[in-house]
Amino acid sequence: MLTGIVISVSFLTGCCLILAGILLVAERRILNYGPCAIDINDGKKKLEVAGGGTLLAALAENDIFIPSACGGRGTCAYCKVQVAEGGGTVGPVEAPYLTPDEVKGNVRLSCQVKVRGDLNIVIPDELFSIRRFRGHVEHKRPLTPDIVEMRIALDEPAEIEFIAGQYIQLESEPYRGRDAVMRAYSVSSPPSETQAVETVIRLVPDGICTTWVFEILKEGDSVQFSGPYGEFRLSDSDRPCLFIAGGSGMAPIWSILRDMNEKRVRRPAIYFFGALTQDDLFYTEPLRQLEKDLPDFRYVPALSREPPDSDWTGERGLITEVLARQVPDMSEHEAYLCGSPGMIDAAIKVLTANGMPESQIFYDKFA
Ligand SMILES: Cc1cc2nc3c(=O)[nH]c(=O)nc-3n(C[C@H](O)[C@H](O)[C@H](O)COP(=O)(O)OP(=O)(O)OC[C@H]3O[C@@H](n4cnc5c(N)ncnc54)[C@H](O)[C@@H]3O)c2cc1C
Q: β-strands 269-275, 297-303: how paired?
């Protein structure tokens, strides 16, 4: 009887062990997808990648850089690609960012697509020319209490081609227990400067990348970034321009204005720049110089929290109020906006209320 019980227990234990073994192997099969093939643009490029990661990361590892301003968190919706085959179903994180037509056309956020088998994708051809650059911090200097100008001299490749208004994706390194991240920063230098890129970076309290830039990164340190990215740029029209920016939103506008000056672009332009107090203004002298160099250019800084009894004689109030006061009819202008989403949304309301069609409004939200 006792022997029978012992045999049954041993038999059951054996069965359990075998079952556990089968489950373990099965789970390993699920987690370890093995090599997967990615076909891009009907065979234009074919990759073999390790399965399990995201499509965005798999492409980046193979030097194909899809714009992703949020670094893969599924919050910027810049990394859309068409996944013709193998992408699985649309997930809850990406669903809010896809229109019904995009879902029908198999458009997906590449940061949310997991590589679990062979994929067939379509991307714009120009993305093949985005590259990863290695450089070093040539200088980092404060512009305001919470904004620095950082110039990165290029080491490999030694030169970059970009259009004024475009941005790079800076790659931070792990520090104080925080992971490496990628964040978008507009280039503030003009495209004529090919051997370095300048950026204007505002410290975001507790922000991973900006804390790294402000507190860890030193002059001479190596940095990596990819680029150039983005569609924000001056159009070919000859309409008068309204540039509107706040804080580090200065960066792409400053690149566009310097480019206009170098190329002697004669479009009438007004630059409305919003800041809190005089301490938050920067590049004032070169912008005043630009008013002399570009005959039809005006710079209008406006302060919203400057003490009433200070020596400031310029515009006061929100940049949107100043804009509406100075340009009552905006129907013939084009607008170029950069900065926080809140400022941009408020400015778009003012622009459209004052006659500007949405097709004449261009912006980069620093979301
Ligand atoms: C096209 C484009 C161009 C840009 N150009 C510039 C530029 O020229 N200059 C510039 O300064 N910025 C620019 N930005 C913004 C920049 O990309 C970063 O978003 C910004 O610098 C913050 O990055 P961070 O890593 O420091 O902050 P993050 O770590 O991303 O954090 C941002 C904030 O979110 C909070 N946060 C983070 N994660 C969570 C979470 N899980 N839950 C709740 N809160 C959270 C943080 O506490 C912090 O307050 C641009 C953005 C875009 C899209």
A: parallel
Task: Give nearest CA residue, ligand 1 atom 48.
Answer: 207
Q: Which of 14-23, 250-259, 332-341 has the lowest mean pLDDT?
A: 14-23
Q: Where in the chain is the domain with CATH 3.40.50.80?
A: 241-365
CATH code for the part of the protein at 130-229: 2.40.30.10
Q: What is the pLDDT of residue 343?
A: 95
Chain segment 307-321, per-residue pLDDT in tens: 999 999 999 999 999
Q: Does the beta carbon of 208 sit less than 6 angstroms from any atom of ligand 1?
A: yes
Give start-end residues of each CATH 3.10.20.30 domain in the chain: 35-127
Model-level pTM greater than 0.90?
no
Contact 54, 108 (CB under 8 A): no
Give the span between the Cα atoms of 74 and 174, in whole angstroms.
21
| Per-residue confidence (pLDDT) for residue 330, from 0 to 100 | 95
Is the Cβ atom of 204 under 6 angstroms away from ligand 1?
yes
Domain 35-127 has CATH 3.10.20.30: yes
- CA–CA separation, 6 and 263 (whole Å): 91
- Write down the CATH number for the domain with range 241-365: 3.40.50.80
Distance 326 CA to ligand 1 centre (A): 32
The tokens describing 335, both together, are 């607008």
Above 70 in pLDDT, residue 5?
A: no
Cβ contact 354:324 at 8 Å = yes
CATH 2.40.30.10 positions along the chain are: 130-229
| pLDDT class of 68 with cuts at 50, 70, 90 | confident
Q: Is 214 in the pocket of ligand 1 (CB under 6 A)?
A: no
Q: Is the CB of 167 under 6 A from ligand 1?
A: yes
Strand, coil or helix: 123: coil
